[in-house]
């Protein structure tokens, strides 16, 4: 079993690309952000703990995240590998991942900080299927999402107040992982400040 990691700052386009790569590779997407939001919505103990950190734009403690991943990776759909979206984000998470599954490619979607705020503050998604859109860069069609269950949803942490904290967490705790994976020879840098289709093409090429 061999897995892929989608790596990058908040709003880089990891979720947008994950949806497309899943269609092409069949690998299931495992997004720790989505799992945490589901736990918050379900009102679980993990959810209420995570919410404090998420609302502040800080990383949720490693042990919470690692437990979530260890459980998720046991599901039958994960047996042939998965695509991690937003995990790992710290060295301890990467160390734990190395004991759980083999990682064949780390795809780093690179976007300058000054583009991140406009991306995050204009984001919305379909509550029906989870597809991600943007007010300016990637608007939903006039008739709504093609899943047929269109309902606009915006994230509680998508505001200018938390973006800077999330970016700081990325630079301080997550970006050091680039060196970790570069030395393993599996790190691919992709310019994420371009058209969505062009980025998808480069990611698929890197995966071959
Ligand atoms: P999470 O949900 O993972 O958020 P994030 O990493 O901050 O990433 P985002 O989902 O915000 O962005 P994205 O890269 O997926 O971009 P998207 O495709 O949506 O985490 C949320 C919180 O949970 C964290 O802050 C933390 O508290 C906690 N957490 C999660 N995982 C954790 C972990 N492993 N450890 C500890 N804590 C954890 O795109 C953004 C927007 O841009 C969209 O509107 C999209 O339409 C648009 N867009 C995409 N591509 C382009 C393009 N090429 N050009 C123009 N617009 C584009």
Question: Quick recap of the structure?
Answer:
The chain has 208 residues and is of the alpha/beta class.
Structure, explained:
The chain is α/β, with parallel strands linked by helices. The chain has helices at residues 14-25, 32-42, 45-55, 62-72, 91-100, 113-121, 160-174, 177-182, 196-207, and strands at 2-7, 29-31, 83-85, 102-110, 123-126, 132-134, 152-153, 187-191. The strands form 2 sheets. A 5-stranded parallel sheet has the order 2-3-1-4-8, sandwiched between helices. It has a 3-stranded antiparallel sheet with strand order 6-5-7. A hairpin with a 5-residue loop joins strand 5 (123-126) and strand 6 (132-134). Helix 2 packs across helix 3, helix 4 (62-72) runs parallel beside helix 5 and helix 6 (113-121) crosses helix 7. It is globular and about 45 Å long. Bound molecules: BIS(adenosine)-5'-pentaphosphate. BIS(adenosine)-5'-pentaphosphate is lined by residues 8, 10-16, 32-33, 36, 53-54, 57-60, 65, 86-87, 89, 93, 119-120, 122-123, 132-134, 137-138, 166, 192, 196, 199. Residues 8, 10-16, 32-33, 36, 53-54, 57-60, 65, 86-87, 89, 93, 119-120, 122-123, 132-134, 137-138, 166, 192, 196, 199 line the site of BIS(adenosine)-5'-pentaphosphate.
Write the layout of secondary structure elements.
Elements: E1 2-7, H1 14-25, E2 29-31, H2 32-42, H3 45-55, H4 62-72, E3 83-85, H5 91-100, E4 102-110, H6 113-121, E5 123-126, E6 132-134, E7 152-153, H7 160-174, H8 177-182, E8 187-191, H9 196-207
Parallel strand pairs: 1-3, 1-4, 2-3, 4-8
Antiparallel strand pairs: 5-6, 5-7
Helix pairs in contact: 1-9, 2-3, 4-5, 6-7
The structure holds BIS(adenosine)-5'-pentaphosphate.
